[in-house]
Amino acid sequence: MAVWDLSVMVEELGPEAPALKVSVTSDLHVGGVILKIVQKTDIKKDWSDHALWWEQKQQWLLKPAWTLDKCGVHADARLCFTPQHKPLRLGLPNGATVSLRACFSSPVFRSIMGICRLLNIRHPEELSLLRPAEEKKKKKDTAQEELYDLTGVPLSAGLGAVVTLSDGMPAHFAESPEAEAVYKMLSVSQPAPAPETINKLYRPTSVVEKAQVNSRWLDSSRSLLQQGVQENSKLLLRFKYFSFYDLVPKVDVVRLTQLYEQARWAVLLEEIECTEEEMMLFAALQYHIGKVSLTEALVTPSPAMDDLDFALQCLEVKMDGESSGVDMLESMTAPQLHDYLKIFRPKRLTLKGYKQFWFTFKDMSISYFKSKEESFREPIQQMNLKGCEVTPDVSVANQKFCIKLLIPEPDGMNEVCLRCENEQQYSNWMAACRLASKGKTLADSSYPSEVQSIRSFLAMQRSVPGSNDAQTDESINTHSLVSPRYQKKYKAKQLTPRILESYQNVAQLSLTDAVQRFLQIWQALPDFGVSYFVVRFKGCRKDEVLGIANNRLIRIDLGVGDVVKTWRYNTMKQWNVNWDIRQVAIEFNGNVNIAFSCLTADCKIVHEYIGGYIFMSTRGKEPGETLNEELFHKLTGGHEAL
Amino acid sequence: MDDIDAMFSDLLGEMDLLTQSLGVEDVRPPSPKKEVNLSVGFTDLNESLLELEDNDLDALMADLMADLDATEKLAAEKKAAAKDPHPTLENLHLPSPDHASVPAPPLPPAHRASSAENEEQAKADKIKLALEKLKEAKVKKLVVKVEMTNGSSKTLMVDERQTVRDVLDNLFEKTHCDCNVDWCLYETNPELQTERGFEDHENLVEPLSAWTRDSENKVLFREQEDKYAVFKNPQNFYLWKKDKKALKDMKDKDKELLLEENFCGSSIIVPDLEGALYLKEDGKKSWKQRYFLLRASGIYYVPKGKTKTSRDLVSLVNFDNVNVYYAKEYKAKYKAPTDFCFILKHPQIQKESQYIKYLCCDDHRAMTLWVTGIRVAKYGIALYENYKTAVKRSSASSSWTDRINSTQSTPSPTPKAKAANGHPLPPPPLMDVLPPPPPDPVMPPPPPLPNKGGLPPPPPPSSVTKNRGGALPPAPVEDFPPPPPLDDGELPPDFMPPPPPAAGVGFYLHGGEALPPPPPDPVGLPLAPPPPGPPPPPPPPPPVGAPAPRPVLPAKREGPAPPKRTTPGLSAPSGGDFMSELMVAMQKKRVQQ
């Protein structure tokens, strides 16, 4: 058989070096070619990650047993001998960028599995990569983004379990302080961004703009290099399928944190619409999560620690058991608050205003007397606060500390306003009122922390008016917790009490609970989990919007934004893609057929979305079930995969 | 004297019988009250004790005895449990199974302790016991009169830790009803003309405590089809926009899927209701039409001149502090456009007030949709858990009633000697297990039923149900088929998303060989009986005279309802006082006899 020269570029020989000429025959297999190349370069190193890339055909030659002939390689081919894993800059949901080695030769689906393994995110099938939006040319690219480097971390080849340390951190992060810092970035939510930062970022304003983002998803069934992604270029990692399977806080620290970050940015950038009330709750939760993140880890799992805690508890109980009943008696007598406060009842149409009385807070009710000396007599009035509504009416600047109470009574709500003298008094009484409204007494263990959280919120209000000097942990700009729409609508001092109002319902949540609550509210929004595409239905003359969610397809009027029609997947019989005219046709039960072409995105992306959601719904209930990669490709691959 | 002793022991037996929690067989002959429908009024203790009927008193007495016994035992146990990792007071109140075997008046633990060498210890124990009792005495208890749909009533003692579920179970015991999931406790307020079914997870005492002294409110025990309609026919709520025929023909597996999508995810999905409702303006008499939307965070409306995009919506109310109530005959009362009204109010509010939100729907269907949607938004997963518990309860007891019926058919004047000393408070632990028959020395074990259909179960509530069927149109009740044996009611394992397919460019969703294995059945659902009108298990024999169609309004009832003066009021008895009063009352009874 004829011997001919195959020219191969080898990066290790330097960029200027001429292509290597290797003498081959057409029946030589790829493995043999690689062996010859390695011998010829005369460089001693680990070549195991290298493979042949056929530039002109945009193809990897990955099957070592295939002959050149079978691959279709002839003398005119220019091959490239290059590593399969290359560094990639990855934008994470939390906005940080991490540099890591990703696989450029396997289908993107598998590359993502590798990336998620490295980052310790379970269920990689829910995520995907997309190209960053084309940024408008800035005059000077001064702002150098902070880059976290993980390229030094070796990718474990096997599919075995990731070894985790006692605190839930995978072992591969423990190798250097830098890697540990990366893990902290991944697993702890980021501090609130400055309001200006939010304002500067791109916000979609219409459903058409929301559809644009979906044109940037990479194809899961082809490799990165095939899709023109170069070494060191930037891609974004995002949750693509909004069907989050088996979220377990204990093992999903990074996943939960990044999901929260993605949700938070979606809310801040108005990618998903919410009402004002919902926004205030989101803001309160962000504030709370930010604050608690400083002191509390998302999970403090380590079984050893659990045991220790348990042992300590037992010990405490034992000690308790041995103590005398006197202690129990003491613990059963409830603490009380006493003070002179001013009261005002708007309901009575008097002009009298605030009047001072001696107040006593006991259990869940407030009683007041003419004076301290009279306090042993019958109170003038006693108010049971259980189930009441408590609203603050506070202005630190004007030294106004009022507690507004709406106390339910058989014939309506009793409106009462209590005025305190100072912050200290206010915090104590406010905390007591709030606990009582939820049916808890002063003796409840959460009382001190409630007092503390009210104080820190007051501190926040104090520091807001333009004083940037005292930026402590506790003083953050409330404007950074809401989307630009509400930044414009409200001044900071109007916003703070609104957020505070919502905050009182979440202040006692642990970090994990707060993050989960945030996600729950996000998932309960009506528009949650819908990915939009502008399409043209067959037989229609105007553009319309197709929304794809985890259980249904939605046809939306582009002008008004109304839902025209909904089709659920469980009534779907089959769907087809005509790759020539790039049209998606779907058949539903009852002989319902629809067909459309996609205008804002390639129809492969739409096809992959539908197939992907079907795949998500087939995931089994058993934990530890392995990912059925083949099925995913069958459902999403289109003609390339088959 | 002997007589009294005999009576007393008889009484004790009776008490035990009554307090047996779930799972203990009751072999009394069928109670003379055949139709079971309860209503509850509750009464001021001091006044009403004398009025109580015999068995009411007995039941109360039993409840109390059990309480006290339990308290004492607790103290004893506490010492033993010192090695227990978490002996918090709370779970000490849970009776361990061996309670049942302890004879009624247990040895006061103090005795044991005092015989020990360490006197100090004994003293400490005594103090603890005293404290436990103190604590027990602090537990608020109410005597509640529950009105049945036939106008009769049952009186029971409810303490503040008991949930509505516990009380329902208690009532199931007492009434031998079919225990289906529709049974609920219903609160009516004649002043506001409202009614609301208590949710199973709520504590009963709390809402009742909000009643005023002169309140004419009542608690009814009755079947309410809308209680769990959202789980039986989720499509009516989640796909309400679809046409009615499609909804009616919905397949079971599609219903399962809907439930899974909306209730089994990490977040509960609220039905996306929207539409025009009439709102009675605060304090005004007029009703104004507005476009309302239901979201998980509350009810919103579209302000004038705005669109229904999220950012423009105005919040009417969130559900943290309010409950939703059906309102009756508001056309007459408030000049409402229709009689399909509901209100949102704080449970404490008992009278007309500007703080109540009055809403009016076009038709009955819309009203059911909104009220149910609001319940889903307010209670979330708790509602679904309640439903699952109720289903378990009803399926457990249906096979159970079979057995009871068979037992009852054997005429036997057996003395009611039962050795169960139950603690009434905590929910019975064996909700899902078919309880074994109690050890009964006299009675032979119930003969196995060869043919389940053998006992023709007359569908007695059918007349009642039909009546209500008129009032609650969705899910019409057809004639009852003979109850299918429940054990056989296994669902075919195919209610999963159709496995995706394979070959070709097309993706066939049905059929095909190279399919992925369908995921296993959802956990916890296999028991759910999906047909719209769940076939009732054999219910108690029908009333002798077939009940005449009853007016829908439960408040007005005919028949022999004893017009009992209900003086509702709270009583938070301090243990000792209450006991002595009760004893006095019982003695009086005895004298009368």
Automatic annotation (TrEMBL), chain A:
Biological process terms in GO annotation: cell-matrix adhesion; integrin activation; integrin-mediated signaling pathway; leukocyte cell-cell adhesion; platelet aggregation; regulation of cell-cell adhesion mediated by integrin
GO molecular function, one term: integrin binding
PROSITE patterns recorded: PH_DOMAIN (PS50003)
SUPFAM superfamilies: PH domain-like (SSF50729), Second domain of FERM (SSF47031)
GO cellular component term of the entry, any: cell-substrate junction
CDD domains: FERM_C_fermitin, FERM_F1_KIND3, PH_fermitin
Source domain of life: Eukaryota
The entry's keywords: Cell adhesion
A Pfam family reported for this protein in Swiss-Prot or TrEMBL: FERM_M
Annotated InterPro entries: Band_41_domain, FERM_2, FERM_central, Kindlin/fermitin, Kindlin_2_N, PH-like_dom_sf, PH_domain, PH_Kindlin/fermitin
Domain annotation PH: ranges: 342-438
Record family assignment: Belongs to the kindlin family.
UniProt protein name: PH domain-containing protein
Automatic annotation (TrEMBL), chain B:
Basic and acidic residues bias spans: 77-87
UniProtKB keywords: Cell membrane, Cytoplasm, Cytoskeleton, Membrane
SUPFAM superfamilies: PH domain-like (SSF50729), Ubiquitin-like (SSF54236)
CDD domains: PH_APBB1IP, RA_MRL_RIAM
PROSITE patterns attached to this UniProt entry: PH_DOMAIN (PS50003), RA (PS50200)
Polar residues: compositionally biased ranges: 395-411
Annotated Ras-associating domain residues: 140-226
One Gene Ontology cellular component annotation held by this UniProt entry: cytoskeleton
Gene3D superfamilies, sorted: Phosphatidylinositol 3-kinase Catalytic Subunit, Chain A, domain 1, Pleckstrin-homology domain (PH domain)/Phosphotyrosine-binding domain (PTB)
Pfam family, one: PH
Leader peptide range in chain numbering: none
Main location class: membrane
Subcellular location(s) per record: Cell membrane; Cytoplasm, Cytoskeleton
Domain PH per the UniProt entry, residue ranges: 270-379
Topology versus the membrane: Peripheral membrane protein
InterPro entries linked to this entry: GRB/APBB1IP, PH-like_dom_sf, PH_APBB1IP, PH_domain, RA_dom, Ubiquitin-like_domsf
Ranges of biased composition (kind: Pro residues): 424-462, 473-486, 515-552
Region (Disordered): 77-122, 395-578
Family: Belongs to the MRL family.
Protein name (database record): Amyloid beta A4 precursor protein-binding family B member 1-interacting protein
Native organism: Denticeps clupeoides
